[in-house]
Amino acid sequence: MNDHECVEFLQWALPRLGMRWPGFRKVRRQVCKRVGRRMAQIEIDSIGAYRSHLESHAEEWAMLDACCRITISRFYRDRGVFEFVCDDVLPMLATAAGQRDEPTLRVLSIGAASGEEPYTAAILWRCTVAHGFPDVALDIVATDCDATMLGRADEGVYAWGSVKELPPQWRERAFEVVGQRFVLKAEFRSGVRFELADIREAALTGVFDLILCRNLIFTYFDEALQRELLARLIEHMRPGAALVIGLHERLPSFDDGLETWSERHRIYRKV
Ligand SMILES: C[S@@+](CC[C@H](N)C(=O)[O-])C[C@H]1O[C@@H](n2cnc3c(N)ncnc32)[C@H](O)[C@@H]1O
């Protein structure tokens, strides 16, 4: 499939999956390579024939949906954002949590990939903020719809490329180096639970103090789905809770119960 066919196919297919083409512009080759592999697997040799196949086989859309999953992540991705979370957001949320009967800071990481984002939150907490809040426990729920990614998250073993952006003193404290691999120590894994869930369908339980929702909903999903999911996230945020989205993302609207905490870092607060 050439680039023109790939673009045309994605522009036709993505809206039918509740996704938006602009989010896929840069990663289209990766997606179309997977689509090509899927076509070979079911012995279809033209993109036109695959389109017809999708139109007559409803179950094939789930296979295409899986081809559209972009799973890139890294520890401490977008350093400035995590510095702000560490210096401003977590201390404020921990102070509020400490005043409650059950002093637990609940974090939800959506589209957690192989654990890089929720484990970054756990590392920040344990290496810095936790000292000032000895009575506050951190409870992180991390979800993703890709079982392979969650299997890797459970293992907690990473290559240099995944951990290289972490400040060295935290990296040394949080990981054991085994050969070329970085193995996350048990103390940084405790309190982080992984759940297989598709955010489009999953029921969220309880309320959260911090929701990390970066480089998924507001990049790849269409605006109607973004609005629906944003409303659902806000319902599950405690007043004062923070929502962190990706640096290159925008919320579909501002007037639904959120105020800006840091526009530069794309961090919002429930009013
Ligand atoms: C680009 S990665 C972002 C990882 C991390 N949040 C970050 O910003 O570094 C997107 C992740 O979302 C997951 N994902 C894609 N569609 C999803 C869905 N419908 N529900 C839950 N997770 C999904 C993918 O499997 C992938 O791991």
Quick take:
The protein is of the alpha/beta class. It has 13 helices and ten strands.
Question: How would you describe this protein?
Answer:
Strand 9 (258-262) and strand 10 form a beta hairpin. With 271 residues, this protein is of the alpha/beta class. A seven-stranded mixed sheet has the order 6-2-1-7-8-10-9. It has a three-stranded antiparallel sheet with strand order 3-5-4. It has helices at 3-13, 21-24, 28-41, 47-56, 60-67, 79-98, 116-127, 147-155, 160-163, 168-174, 186-189, 217-220, 223-235; strands at 104-110, 137-144, 157-158, 175-178, 181-184, 192-196, 208-213, 237-245, 258-262, 267-270. 35% of the residues are buried. It starts with a helix and ends with a strand. The mean pLDDT is 96. The chain is 44% helix and 20% strand. Residues 69-73, 77, 111, 113, 116-117, 144-146, 149, 198-200, 214-216, 246 line the site of S-adenosylmethionine (SAM). S-adenosylmethionine is lined by residues 69-73, 77, 111, 113, 116-117, 144-146, 149, 198-200, 214-216, 246.
